[in-house]
Design a protein that fits this description.
Number of strands: 13
Shape: globular
Structural class: alpha/beta
Length: about 475
């Protein structure tokens, strides 16, 4: 017992290998390191190489007590080494091919450094359960999205059993059927079928597998022998009744977010420089923002996975142009399906004095910049909670995954956002941008966002904030669970 206490507990952190999941897991890993844990952060080999290209090899050297390791994702090397991997193929390969490599790596870590005393895995990395069980290591789960979205994923089986999903054919996606209200989650009254993660509609290749995959991860989390879920949110934001519902289905849960705020408070300079953006950041956009008036710029970013047609891209562009507001627009090279992301020359000419295009940016710094007055977003959770944390209202264009329930919560529960139709039209884009930036509804949204910002900051205050208190409870639990 005494020798165990003399050594730092060794936590292995395993994110799902996509940008929006790597970011919060790395923040959690750095926070745990600040609390005295030895950390090994495990990326897939593909994403590790992307990080090296975007940030340089020195950026991932870490410390003796904070190191990076890799395992293969089982997929063939793609032609474009910096494009986001296709989600269904990636999920299938992780499930089918990665258990052996992970077990071998964990054993190697125990021999090279110190025995692994805890696995902190993304809840969607379900194959890790078998490794934890076989190696007799306690495992904790990180749900990288909001608490409400977990309840939506958990209801997949209910929607299937009731015959509400999948859609009978593609006409049901446009005939009003998706507006059907399904009051199956008490904490989300008025939830429509269209507000559930869209895989359940089973209209696209791979959707059926993703429904099976998600349902399997939900069941694994519920039946794990040591089921503890960590959330990148705070109790005040999503309310106790949401967490009570989750606890009744899954077991203990700890809201210790927003992680980016705790990171700023707790992580020292030796780790603060380690970042996780898979694309090289354009830092010139921060200088450009410095030249703009407070609350005058629309920030546009649809995240790391969202794709659109070239027509949708053009409609967004002309909508922004017609609004007459300045905008910073992040356009990934792979954002348009099967084509290069190119805007018409006449649009670029019209907006050259008030629009800036970039391929990627340091989003936390952008959203905290005083010139940002609104955010046109896909509603990934990182973007959502970073926007709220800075009191920035949103226009929501959800694409897949948790983004639809996040959009519902922002629009219907918190009153900080407006939703835009999937069938993008420039006039609607322009109208919503103008409303968000200076309309009556937009001003109300901004006030609500600032109220939430203040509430979140209180949750992350030392030492009495709810997220800080939950972090201490989590740290104690990890320490006592160490073998």
């Amino acid at each position: 017992m005494g020798s165990r206490q003399e050594k730092k507990p060794h936590v292995v952190c395993i994110p799902a290998p996509v940008q929006g999941h790597i970011n919060p897991m790395l923040k959690l890993a750095k926070i745990l390191h600040s609390k005295g844990f030895d950390i090994t952060f495990i990326n897939t080999e593909f994403n590790h190489q992307r990080l090296v290209r975007s940030r340089g090899s020195d950026a991932l050297r870490g410390l003796p007590s904070f190191r990076f390791e890799t395992f293969p994702d089982g997929l063939p090397t793609p032609e474009n080494l910096d494009a986001t991997q296709e989600v269904t193929s990636l999920a299938r390969s992780l499930e089918d091919n990665c258990l052996g490599a992970l077990k071998e790596l964990i054993s190697k870590l125990g021999a090279s450094y110190s025995p692994v005393t805890c696995i902190m895995a993304d809840l969607l990395m379900g194959f890790t359960r078998a490794a934890a069980k076989e190696l007799d290591i306690p495992e904790f789960f990180l749900w990288t999205s909001g608490a409400s979205s977990l309840l939506c994923f958990e209801q997949f089986s209910y929607l299937l059993e009731k015959g509400l999903m999948p859609l009978k054919d593609s006409s049901f996606a446009v005939n009003g059927y998706l507006d059907t209200v399904v009051d199956c989650i008490p904490t989300m009254p008025g939830l429509r079928l269209k507000d559930f993660p869209p895989w359940i509609r089973c209209l696209n290749p791979g959707d059926e597998y993703m429904v099976e995959f998600i349902s399997l991860q939900m069941e694994r989390a519920k039946t794990a022998p040591f089921s503890v879920i960590v959330f990148n949110t705070c109790h005040e934001l999503e309310k106790n009744d949401t967490f009570d519902t989750i606890s009744s289905k899954f077991g203990p849960c700890y809201a210790i977010g927003p992680l980016h705020l705790l990171e700023k408070k707790l992580v020292d300079k030796s780790l603060a420089s380690i970042k996780s953006n898979l694309w090289k950041e354009d830092l010139e956009c921060l200088e450009w923002l410095d030249s703009k008036e407070p609350n005058s710029v629309v920030y546009v970013n649809f995240g790391s996975i969202t794709v659109m047609t070239s027509q949708q891209l053009v409609e967004f562009g002309w909508g922004l142009a017609k609004s007459n507001y300045s905008f910073l627009w992040i356009i990934r090279p792979d954002v348009v399906i099967g084509e290069s992301a190119v805007l018409p020359p006449e649009l670029l000419e019209e907006t050259k004095n008030r629009g800036l295009l970039a391929s990627w940016c340091p989003q936390e710094q952008v959203l905290s910049h005083p010139s940002i007055g609104g955010f046109l977003t896909h509603n990934g959770w990182n973007s959502t909670i970073e926007s709220i944390s800075n009191g920035v209202p949103m226009i929501c264009w959800p694409f897949f995954g948790d983004q639809h329930p996040n959009c519902w919560v922002c629009c219907n529960k918190w009153g900080v956002a407006l939703e835009i139709d999937n069938d993008v039209k420039r006039d609607e884009v322009s109208k919503l941008v103008i409303e968000m930036m200076n309309g009556d509804k937009g001003n109300e949204m901004r006030k609500n966002a600032v109220d939430l910002k203040n509430m979140i900051e209180e949750a992350c205050s030392c030492p009495s904030g709810s997220s800080m208190a939950n972090l201490e409870k989590l740290v104690d639990l990890i320490q006592t669970s160490a073998k």
